[in-house]
């Protein structure tokens, strides 16, 4: 099941390192989560999840505080959660999650990113059935056996536990996200290398070299869009 999560996160962080794009995306997501519930992560689970993710990407506290204060201030700025599904080269599958204040603009931009890079948008449900909503949580300082014992003692059910480089990665149902975190917290572990609610492909595919280059270009184009928060796919990029 492993998708080399630390490598993926490091690649995304490196790609975004010279811009403030990743911080802007988190700022928007934090604002929306805080506005839709209480602006306190202890009573707003959606906000808590976003903040845990933000920590693993080293989002500055100033960005987080500004987004929460904006929500507290009663800003009238509203965003819609949208999901697009589509296909890339050689039948590869892609899911795009967006937060937007202009649905027509976002749909047009996403469609163009697909179309200009050998892909096409599909209808709702055309791709998502091949992905599983999954909580992915990673920590350092534990191996697979220790982690399994820790989670069993806490009576937490997970799908899989894998060692990936210097981390152990836990894959679980989304509703077990906080239970897994709490089990680690109770064991004295409060820092996570990965803390994601994601969509995992049931089967990865490998593309020929030329198709993979085109696919990566398409993914980059989608991730570059201001309104796009997350892009999931079923391609093994090595």
Automatic annotation (TrEMBL):
Name the UniProt record assigns to this protein: Probable transcriptional regulatory protein ABDD91_00990
DNA damage as a keyword of this entry, yes or no, is no
TACO1/YebC-like second and third domain location: 79-235
Q: Which InterPro entries match?
A: Integrase-like_N, TACO1_YebC-like_2nd/3rd_dom, TACO1_YebC_N, Transcrip_reg_TACO1-like, Transcrip_reg_TACO1-like_dom3, Transcrip_reg_TACO1_YeeN, YebC-like
**Subcellular localization, per the record?**
Cytoplasm
Ranges for the TACO1/YebC-like N-terminal domain? 3-74
Species for this entry: Priestia aryabhattai (Bacillus aryabhattai)
Q: Note whether Metal-binding occurs among the keywords.
A: no
């Amino acid at each position: 099941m492993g998708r080399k999560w630390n490598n993926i996160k490091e690649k995304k962080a490196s790609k975004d390192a010279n811009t403030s794009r990743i911080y802007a995306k988190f700022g928007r997501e934090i604002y929306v989560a805080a506005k839709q519930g209480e602006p306190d992560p202890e009573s707003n689970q959606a906000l808590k999840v976003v903040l845990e993710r933000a920590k693993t990407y080293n989002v500055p506290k100033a960005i987080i505080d500004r987004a929460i204060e904006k929500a507290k201030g009663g800003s009238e700025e509203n965003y819609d959660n949208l999901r697009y599904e589509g296909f890339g080269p050689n039948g590869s599958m892609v899911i795009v999650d967006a937060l937007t204040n202009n649905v027509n603009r976002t749909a047009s931009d996403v469609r163009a990113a697909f179309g200009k890079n050998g892909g096409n948008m599909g209808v709702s449900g055309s791709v998502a059935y091949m992905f599983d909503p999954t909580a992915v949580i990673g920590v350092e300082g534990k191996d697979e056996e220790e982690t399994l014992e820790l989670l069993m003692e806490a009576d937490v059910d997970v799908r899989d536990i894998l060692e990936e480089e210097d981390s152990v990665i836990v894959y679980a149902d989304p509703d077990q996200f906080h239970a897994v975190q709490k089990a680690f917290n109770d064991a004295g572990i409060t820092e996570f290398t990965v803390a994601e609610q994601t969509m995992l492909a049931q089967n990865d595919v490998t593309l020929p070299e030329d198709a993979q280059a085109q696919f990566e270009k398409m993914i980059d184009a989608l991730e570059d869009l201001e309104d796009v928060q997350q892009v999931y796919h079923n391609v093994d990029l090595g």
